[in-house]
Amino acid sequence: MAPREFDFSCRCGDHGPHGLEFARGLEVIHCEKCSTWSHVSCQRFGRAAGLPKSTPFYCDRCVRMELPIPSAPKAGLSFICIIHKFSLKIHRVGMGALAKYGKYHYPVRLLLRLPRRQGWRVRFWRGCAYPPDVPPPDPEKAVTEDDLVDSLYGNQAARRRIRLGKYTHAHEIPVEEDLLANFQDQPFSPRLDAILSPYFDVLFAIFSKSFEQNLHIPSVQYVLASKKKDQTIPYAGDLSVQEQAEIMNWFCNMIPYAKDHLTDWVGSPAHAHAITIVIAALNEKELRLHRDFPSQESEMAQTTAMWKWAWQLQQHRGRIPAVDVDRECLGLLEQWMFESSDDAGLAGDEQWGLDAGHHQDRWVPYKGLPAAWSSYRSGFEDNAKYEHGPDFSDEGLSEKEAPAPAPKPAPDRPRPRPKRKAKE
Ligand SMILES: [Zn+2]
Ligand SMILES: [Zn+2]
């Protein structure tokens, strides 16, 4: 495609009129419904990968209903992949995989298949905890097909050969709503402090409900014009959830009494004005170029004009909430990696690495996994299958240290047990 401007609006949060800038060298796909372009690799479950040109595509935002979670690729398929080593059809752009890096395999999201068998461009999961002496992988460096495996669903033998690198599970990462609810854990940046602290007096005055001197403030005008008592203001424009959480943290810690009266200011004109100030600061260059900008007038008049425009952005440029596509992708990969069910078979019985060696730092990946991934397994009580194979390596341990006993199933992973029949 000739490089030209197009509307880009991907669910990962990349958006703008200069599409190619946001494509970041990845494949893009056009939605028939909303006419915007998205990354192929950001669509759920890799569903946009390899679509025939004639198939109309509807982006994840336009596909209103929840897409059903696809079932795991079955052992048979993985087996086919092993025999046809070079037709690994299971790897699809947008899917998760495990990539070998050093001794261990770490989760990645597949971004782009490179031509001429050069391998894959991938994004390593941001929650990977590499050993201290191992630098993080170069994001530009391709991962070869040989160093990649999928979830190996149902493939016990292959799983036993793979040692996992330590990483934070997808379900341990806070989702956006948690970020706002736990804003006290999101310390504000020095930059945010520099933007807000010059306006401490005006923010404290509005917080204290001194509206008379502040009738030029857009959020004050908004609540005064509203007929509703205690009108809250839901607007945050283009700000990310992280930025919003940091603003709340600043407000809470810097405005006297705010900490003890959360319900008094969240969504209040003072809080909304803090957001206006930040939006004005982030867009200052653009706003100053506005042909109506009062550049000859007082500083106060300039600031008021900027806040007025920033308020428009705050109200009308509703941000399309970005999806944490990396977390979503890892969540599905992990569900397939760790599912314990009759479908997953023996491979689902905590088999990773048992013929290879300990996971990084003797990590136990099965602790605290969602209970929903584990259903009753017939014959589960047979502990023999947790034993290490003859090639299990204890390297890295001191010689005096006794070889580790075969790991028992992680204690805090709830397992349904067969119901005992009451004795007659
Ligand atoms: Zn994207
Ligand atoms: Zn669309």
List the helices and strands and how they pair.
Elements: E1 8-9, E2 15-16, H1 19-23, E3 28-30, E4 37-39, H2 75-83, E5 96-101, E6 104-113, E7 120-124, E8 148-149, H3 156-160, H4 176-181, H5 190-196, H6 200-207, H7 218-225, H8 241-254, H9 262-265, H10 269-282, H11 284-288, H12 299-316, H13 325-338
Antiparallel strand pairs: 1-2, 3-4, 5-6, 5-8, 6-7
Bound molecules: zinc ion (ZN) (2 copies).
Residues 31, 33-34, 36, 58-59, 61-62 line the site of one zinc ion.
Observed structural traits:
single chain, 424 residues, alpha+beta, Herpes Virus-1, four-stranded antiparallel beta sheet, two-stranded antiparallel sheet, 8 strands, elongated, disordered C terminus, binds zinc ion, Znf_RING/FYVE/PHD, Znf_FYVE_PHD, Zinc finger PHD-type domain-containing protein
Q: Work out the helix count.
A: 13
Distance between the terminal alpha carbons, to the nearest Å?
76 Å
Number of domains: 3
User: pLDDT below 50 for ≥5 consecutive residues: which ranges?
Assistant: 75-89, 398-403, 416-424
Q: What is the beta-strand fraction?
A: 5-15%
Brief description of this entry?
Residues 384-402 have a biased composition (Basic and acidic residues). By secondary structure, the protein is of the alpha+beta class. The protein contains 13 helices and eight strands.
